[in-house]
Amino acid sequence: MTKLTIDGREIEVEAGMTIIQACEILGVEIPRFCFHERLAIAGNCRMCLVEVEKTPKPVASCAQPVADGMVVKTNSPMVRKARHGVMEFLLINHPLDCPICDQGGECDLQDEAMGYGMDRSRYRELKRAVKDKDFGPLVKPTMTRCIHCTRCVRFLADVAGAPDLGSIGRNENMEIDTFVAKAIGSELSGNIIDLCPVGALTSKPYAFTARSWELHSSESVDALDAVGSNIRVDARGNQVMRVLPRTNDDVNEEWLGDKSRFACDGLMRQRLDRPYLRRDGKLAPASWPETFAAIVDRVRQLGGARVAALAGDLADAEAMFALKELMAGIGSPHLDCRQDGAKLGGPRVSYLFNTTIAGIEQAGALLLIGTNPRWEAPVLNARIRKRWMRGGFPIGLVGADLDLSYRHQHLGDSASVLSAIADGSHPFAKVLKDAKHPMLILGQGALARPDGAQILGLARRVAESTGMVGDGWNGFNVLHTAAARVGGLDMGFLPGAGGRDTAGILAGCKSGEFGAVYLLGADEIDMAALGKAFVIYQGHHGDAGAHRADAILPGAAYTEKDAAYVNTEGRAQQTRLAVFPPGEAREDWKIIRALSEAMGRALPYDTLPELRARLAKSAPSFAAPDRVVPAAWAPFGADGPVGSEPLRSPIANYYMTDPICRASPTMAQCTATFLGGARRTGTHG
Amino acid sequence: MSGAGDGGAAKQPASFAFTPDNLGKARAFIARYPAGRQKSAVMPLLDLAQRQEGWVSVAAMDAVAAMLDMAPILVYEVASFYSMYNLKPVGKHHLQVCTNLPCRLRGSDELMATCRKELGIGPGETTVDGQFSLIEVECLAACVNAPVLMLGDDYYEDLAPDSLRKIIAGLRKGESPKPGSQIGRQGSAPVGGPKTLTGAAG
Predict the structure, then answer these.
(1) Helical H runs in chain B?
(2) Which of A155, A250, A298 is nearest to A569 (CA)?
(3) Could A167 and B74 be called an inter-chain contact, meaning their C-beta atoms sit closer than 8 Å?
(4) Cβ atoms within 10 Å of A562's Cβ, excluding its own
(5) In this complex, is the C-beta atom of A157 within 8 Å of any C-beta atom belonging to chain B?
(6) Exposed site from A348, A520, B58, B99, fewest CB < 10 Å?
(7) Kind and range of the H or E element at A270?
(8) How far apart, in whole angstroms, are the C-alpha atoms of residue A222 and residue A658?
């Protein structure tokens, strides 16, 4: 510990801290542009100058470690004069275009200039101008405004592992650039917009659409992947204008994947804003009572046992729970939340990311199986890279070889490698055994195949034989791609006694065994396999499911409802209503509650708290929101031979995985830019 | 100016490869640094590429990046920082005239004017036949013998319009004019010979 005095107050901090961090502990605000807690220290903006006694010159507090007996002044005449000087220099070349700058109103330079700026300019010369650049469809550079803090350069190089930006040239001619014209090739590129303290990097899709003070913000949770990144939804009127990350050190730190950030323009397109019924082969607008009546008629004719239900990737926990109870009410055991057919559903420990995302930082070695975390969970991948950057973290990959933004050893793409690791004959088994806290990540690509249960069993044997489980450490992890999945598994949205799973339901629909199927936002299944079944589609976008539907119940997207999603760790978090669902669309659980009443089997709750109280009894995760409830180790998976088909990630296009992205023009542009116009595909490639 | 943002300005070759001879030299440079620190060889390798091609193309920088296992952008940063790396093709004879204060006081303006007149090009330009290019450079650290011009690895010192014209004429004829002081000065000694320490050592 080191003792120092800041502005006359004594404080003891950990040795090795910098002055700016010590000041923060005391609540003394130091202006800064280049310093950022989660990035390497650069010390190049000089805005954080402080006076240190017995030091002749002002000191950059972001780069100066504390020392015993240091006496720091943060508000002396010398400090104020130094910061005024720095600010004057920064503003020499900064354009006066705040009125047309998207950063206006939330700009660090603007804010600090209020404190340290001069009220007039002493500079008569021309300002420097920088030619326009193109960084791709997401980030809009206006580099004339750049103050060369290099936060973006450091973020891309260190956190994202996609070093595409650099400081090109020198002195007056220095520019932040890619040098060769290219789009920034990272799934985390949007974060440099947040990091930029000025308006040099702004959001391209959001450009000139709103001012920060016109927006109302709601603290919510992302549902476009299974990480459950904490987000802030900024809306104007009833339109979501942008999505920004919120800090949660246990989940996303303060980063957000590009899909989660930029797909929000899909929320305004292809929306289902009223109920529809298929009449004479064509979908026609209908009223709620008409649609309910048609559904009730059909279900009565068929009898409950001939009705099946599938929940999609964006379904919220409350709606799934209500639908599960409705299905129980009509006497159907045929329901499944695994529309990709993943062989999960055993004990809780078998389908969670048990290590937790923050726990990755304690791991000593990693085995990736049939997954591409860079696309399946970019924020989680950044956490793996963060651990890898510290060194001593061997990573093996079984599956298609990819650029993951960190070095890894490609062990092959067949599941037989896993058998070799499990029986210790593969050299990587020793690497895992020798590591302090080894872990493995099993992707959906390894589970959503006919031998998925056997691969799950193999992975368990790998975990057990290499010491991944025990004394406060659980290194067995399943990485989900769907926000709804863990919630569905936790509450048991799974086939009941004698019930069919997804494949069985699809086969039953085709053979005519099932006369009706209820799709709760399930769009990633083969609609042609539904045969002649009466399809009830409840969801928010006119995607595959709605096209095939016979009755459409318009629901709410994740930004339009208070709903719970359980992330891949088993952490239940709540979204908040930021805007209202469009038109006649309603919150999903309410639709199911209303339908249950029309069926004469009213569900026993009228309010969300009542539903949640019942839900909390069904699974431990819902009873403890925002926390991870650890799961106890238990046997799971199946023994038996595994196929020789190569393991691969289920995601063929990061930018197109669900109905919201598929409706988003920005995501379409990203697909064209980064995947060379690859086909717009879903999670099933 | 070899500064920022003109990565795409010059017509870039599709590929670059060191000649076998230069490849050997490059390996020797890399071997000078401890294992894992091979990035330290980036500057000599860029220089080697420039000596081979006359300038440093994006392909050359990418090749250097691949050899040193570093991100291409890091090589671009280095190459664009130092004005000695030519990021655009230059003439066979790349005249670099110092125009900093001592040279300016000793007549570098006239040297520039002479170049313009003799070659018909201004700073940053190349003659149509590709023989000559001209740039202004910052201090070459030979102020004692100002004004100074750098050509390849050689300095031409104590220049005047006449002596510069002779050098250019010589280059045109394919000769290699003698570098160093053009007024017969010995090293950096005073004009007319050393004035101190003239006696025999003893």
Answers:
(1) 20-31, 42-53, 58-68, 72-81, 101-105, 108-119, 161-172
(2) A250
(3) no
(4) 17
(5) yes
(6) B99
(7) none
(8) 13
Residue of A384, A389, A377 lying closest to A358 (CA atoms) = A384
Chain A residue numbers with beta carbons less than 8 Å from the beta carbon of B80 are 168-170, 179
CA atoms within 13 A on the CB side of A389: 15
Separation of alpha carbons A135 and A177, rounded Å: 9
- What is the predicted ipTM? 0.87
Backbone angles phi, psi at A4, to 5 degrees: -145, 170
Concatenated DSSP letters of A19-80:
HHHHHHHHT-----SS--TTS-----S-TTEEEETT-SS-EETTTPBP-TTEEEESSSHHHH
Closest CA to A589 of A279, A321, A230, A219: A321
What integer pLDDT is reported at residue A470 of this predicted model?
87
Residues paired with B149 in a beta bridge: B97, B156
CA atoms A522, A528, A531, A535: torsion sign: positive
- A·B CB contacts under 8 A: 54
- Could you tell me the residue ranges of all domains in chain B? 20-81, 93-181
Q: Where are the alpha helices (DSSP H) in A523-644?
A: 544-548, 588-598, 608-618, 620-623
Query: For A154, which residue in chain B has the nearest alpha carbon?
Result: B74
**Which residues make beta-bridge pairs with B132?**
B93
Q: Tell me the helices (H) and strands (E) count for chain A, helix number first.
A: 22, 28
Helix (H) or strand (E) holding A396: strand A395-398
Q: Which residues of A touch B74 (CB under 8 A)?
A: 163, 166
Cα distance between residue A272 and residue A536, in whole Å:
13
What the block records as the tokens of A278 is: 């298929």
Express each pLDDT in B124-181 by its tens digit.
Answer: 999 999 999 999 999 999 999 999 999 989 999 999 999 999 999 999 999 999 999 9
Say if the Cβ atoms of A168 and B5 lie within 8 Å: yes
User: CA–CA separation, A8 vs A147, rounded Å?
Assistant: 33
- d(C-alpha A371, C-alpha A399), whole Å: 7
pLDDT tens for residues A575-601? 999 999 999 999 999 999 999 999 999
Inter-residue contact A394 to A440 (CB < 8 Å) = no
For domain B93-181, the CATH superfamily is: Glutaredoxin (3.40.30.10)
User: How far, CA to CA in Å, does A603 sit from each of A329, A438, A494, A519, A622?
Assistant: 8, 46, 19, 19, 19
What's the confidence (pLDDT) of residue A419? 94
Q: Which of B6, B57, B77, B88 to mutate to test the interface with A (most CBs of A within 10 A)?
A: B77
Which residues, listed in sequence order, are joined to residue A65 by a DSSP beta bridge?
Answer: A18
Sort B193 into a burial class: Cβ within 10 Å, 0-12 / 13-18 / 19+.
exposed
Residue A333, judged by CB atoms within 10 A of its CB (0-12, 13-18, 19+), counts as: middle
Instruction: Copy the structure tokens of residue A292.
Output: 């309910």
Token readout for B28 is: 């020797």
Taking contacts as CB-CB distances below 8 angstroms, the residues of chain A near B3 are: 168-170, 173-174
* Residues A103 and A631: beta-carbon distance below 8 Å: no
> Which chain B residues are Cβ-neighbours of A133 within 8 angstroms?
5
Please give the Cα distance from A551 to A568 (Å, whole number).
32
Tokens representing residue A398 in the block? 């079984």
| The token pair that represents A266 in the structure block | 């899909």
Classify domain B20-81 at the CATH topology level: Arc Repressor Mutant, subunit A (1.10.10)
- Look at B74 and A166 and tell me if their CB atoms are within 8 Å: yes
For position A171, what pLDDT does the model report? 86
CA distance A666 to A264: 9
CA–centroid distance for A294 within its chain: 38
Confidence grade of residue B8 (pLDDT, cut at 50, 70, 90) = very low
